[in-house]
Each structure stands twice: as C-alpha cells, then as structure tokens.
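TICKET: design request
STATUS: open
ATTACHED STRUCTURE:
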C-alpha cells in the first residue's frame, strides 16, 4: 500500500473517530436531565411518559434521545416538547436537515444520498431526503414571499422584471385532458413559469472637464465637430448596463399566468419596485408575457428581447431569400445591424422586407405573417433608443434562470414529476439561487438558541 493510500485511510478513520466522539458528546448533552424544552410540563388530560426513547439522526450519526412524552386520548395524539424545541424534522437534527435539503434540491435524491455519504460520512436514503424536501418546500416558499422590502434605493435606480416558461416532464395524471405537441397529441410536460427581478445601478455621470480646458463638446473643437457630424442613426459609444450585485431574485410556479403574474408582481414590490426611478419589463414576445406585463406592470417600459427579435429577422430573410442561402445570410446580418444600431431600425427592417416581398403566392402570405411580429411589437423594439439610455435589451437573466434553476434538476433523463414535487424542489432552488439559503436557516433557528435548564 502506497503512502497516499495510507494517508487516505488514516483520514477516514480519524473522521469516523471524531464523529463517534461528537455523537457521544451530543447524546450525553441532550440527555442531561436538566435540559428541558418550553412546555415540558403535564397539561390537564395528559399522561407523562418520562424518558421515552427516540432515535434521531445527526451530523455525527444516530442519537438516542430520552425525553418526556405526553399522551392524551384525542385525535391530535401526543407531544414531545423537547423534540419541538430542538427543531427535529423527520427524525433529523436541523444541521443534518439543512444538508439534506441542499443536496436533495441540487441533484437526484439517490445521488444526493451518495454525496452526503462521501462528503460528510452520513448514511441517509434517497427516499428520506425526498420526504424532507417535500415537507420543507412549502416553508421555503412562504419564507421567500415574506422577506422585508428595502426602505430605499439609490437615486436613479432602474428596476427590471422578466418572465419566461419552460416545460418539465410530469407524471401522466398531471397531463390528463391536456393537448400535446407530439404526433399522438398527448401532453407529456407541464410548463414551469420563471420570473426574475433585479435592479440596475444609476449610470455613472461623465467626468467633468478639467479646469482651464474646454468641454469635450465645446463648439469649434475637433471632438465637437465629430459630435455635430453624428446623425440620429449613428449611436454614441454604447453604454453597457450592469446589474446591481446581489439584487437578482427569482420566483417559479406551475400556476396559470394570472396567478404567476401576481406572484411576480409581489416579488417586485417586495424588492422595492415602488422606490425605483424607472421600471422596465423585458419579454420574449410571447402574447402571454405581454398580457402579464400589461396587467401587473402597467407603468413599465416594455422591451422585446433583442436576441428573439434577431431570430425572427433570420426567419424573415429565409422566407424572402431562401433557406441557407448566402443572400439570406447577408440580409440577415444587415437587418440585425439595422435593428440594433439605427434609430429607426425596426421601421427600416419592415420597409426593406416589404420592398422584397413577392407580389403574390405562398411566400407573400408567409412574409406577411412574419412581418406581423415586427409590426405588433414595433413600440417594444426601439433598441437604439434603449441603448442610448443605458438599458438592458436582452432577457438573458430569466433565460439563464430557466437553465440554471429548472433544467439541471427537473429535466434529466427518466424524470417524471408531480406538480407539488416539482414546486417544492423549485422553492428551495430559488432560495439557493437568491443566495439566501443560509439566511433561511438562521431565521428558522435563530443563533444562539438556548434551552431552559430545570431549576
């Protein structure tokens, strides 16, 4: 056996020994007769069973906890005040439950059990992790909705909201009566709607000209001459917007659009939307997204995601100039450039497409249908104006959320979810993605937590 193998063996044995010492120490501490939880007295109609054993799993291994159990003859059953005071859940200590939730929300349950075994030496079944996740998922959801709103935002802050949806494979009973896109017409997925809000810090003000020097745009100077030569279609250097660090918050649901809209609006209000100088709603052009924005964000500036618009430019040029032809690619590049860099880019694209439209036939009808996308969203595609104002023109944040929040955990091969199971997983993953997982546990079990000692 090599030195490396010996070292690895020593580390594992030492870890096991430390776990055993920690298990015994914790077991002795919790079984001290002086340790009592609130309400650990006999109430009228109850019978006390002193020292009733209960096996509890911890980060150090199984503990035998002997505590008072109070029984009574009613449907509510008995109670163990010390169990409640210690925060035991599904027979686990809070420290172990925290790891189980994180592991179960991050990877398949059996893989999560293996990760716990490898990383911490804790033996736990995947089924038990699943039960705990399903039990605590609603608590994560309620906690996420109850966070306090900020009392102020920096002056000039821009507030953004985005929405999108992605399909998740579900059990057959979750798709009864629903039409699918496949040849058999049977739905196999349900849509998970993802919403995100974040803020953009106020744009930095340009540096003032040093004393004794003319301003950059002073008349007569070379810089002023170039500025005067700029046309409305020639944008100034692009202002790259930046998200405020730590401001991104996600919400997910399988509920219909109306309920989802209220949840997203609630999240926006919770994060200080009313305090922002400006509100922007970014969407991909789907009708339900704009309807949600109209109802729940009536005062927001609506912006269509530039990359979806560019995709539709490609579809339009394929209809007009042929699929996979050099002419179609050339026009696609030119029209995408117009859309992004020209002050009236969307109007110019519509004009050029109409000039190239056939006088009749199938291609004309297809072109008219494709152009309807640009005409219906004309007021949301002023990319040049938005960039000059330093605003985001892409909805990549919510699209990234669909990929990072939903797909890695719920869309793996062989998975079929119940709606409640998927929502419980997503509730925990939202808190993880919002970087609030530790805060959830701190709020649930404030530290330090003291246990009353018997007199």
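STATUS: resolved
RESOLUTION: sequence designed for all positions
ATTACHED SEQUENCE:
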């Amino acid at each position: 056996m090599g030195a490396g193998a010996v070292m690895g063996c020593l580390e594992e044995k030492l870890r096991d020994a430390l776990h055993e010492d920690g298990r015994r120490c914790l077991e002795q501490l919790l079984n001290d007769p002086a340790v009592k939880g609130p309400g650990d007295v006999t109430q009228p109609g109850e019978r006390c069973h002193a020292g009733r054993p209960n096996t509890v799993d911890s980060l150090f291994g199984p503990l035998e906890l002997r505590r008072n159990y109070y029984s009574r003859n009613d449907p509510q059953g008995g109670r163990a005040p010390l169990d409640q005071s210690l925060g035991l859940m599904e027979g686990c200590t809070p420290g172990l439950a925290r790891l189980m939730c994180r592991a179960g929300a991050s990877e398949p349950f059996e893989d999560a059990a293996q990760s716990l075994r490898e990383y911490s030496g804790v033996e736990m079944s995947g089924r038990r992790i699943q039960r705990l996740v399903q039990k605590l998922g609603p608590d994560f959801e309620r906690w996420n909705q109850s966070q306090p709103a900020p009392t102020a935002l920096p002056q000039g802050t821009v507030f953004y909201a985005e929405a999108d949806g992605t399909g998740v494979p579900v059990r057959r009973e979750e798709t009864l009566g629903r039409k699918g896109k496949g040849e058999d017409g049977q739905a196999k997925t349900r849509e998970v709607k993802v919403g995100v809000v974040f803020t953009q810090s106020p744009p930095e003000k340009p540096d003032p000209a040093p004393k004794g020097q003319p301003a950059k745009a002073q008349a007569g100077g070379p810089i002023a001459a170039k500025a005067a030569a700029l046309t409305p279609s020639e944008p100034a250097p692009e202002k790259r917007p930046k998200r405020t660090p730590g401001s991104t918050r996600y919400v997910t649901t399988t509920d219909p659009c109306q309920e989802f809209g209220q949840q997203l609006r609630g999240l926006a209000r919770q994060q200080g939307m009313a305090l922002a100088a400006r509100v922007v709603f970014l969407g991909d052009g789907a009708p339900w997204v704009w309807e949600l924005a109209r109802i729940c964000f009536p005062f927001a500036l609506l912006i269509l995601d530039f990359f979806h618009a560019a995709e539709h430019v490609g579809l339009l040029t394929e209809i007009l100039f042929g699929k996979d032809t050099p002419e179609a690619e050339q026009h696609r590049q030119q029209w995408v450039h117009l859309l992004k860099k020209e002050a009236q880019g969307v109007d110019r694209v519509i004009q050029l497409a109409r000039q190239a439209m056939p006088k009749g036939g199938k291609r004309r009808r297809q072109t008219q249908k494709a152009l309807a996308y640009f005409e219906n969203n004309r007021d949301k595609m002023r990319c040049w104006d938005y960039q000059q104002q330093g605003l985001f023109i892409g909805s990549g944040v919510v699209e990234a959320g669909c990929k990072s929040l939903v797909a890695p955990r719920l869309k793996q091969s062989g998975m079929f979810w119940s709606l409640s199971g998927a929502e419980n997983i997503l509730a925990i993953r939202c808190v993880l993605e919002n970087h609030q997982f530790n805060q959830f546990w701190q709020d649930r079990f404030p530290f330090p937590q003291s246990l009353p000692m018997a007199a």
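CLOSING REMARK: The mean pLDDT is 87. The first strand starts at residue 47 and ends at 58.
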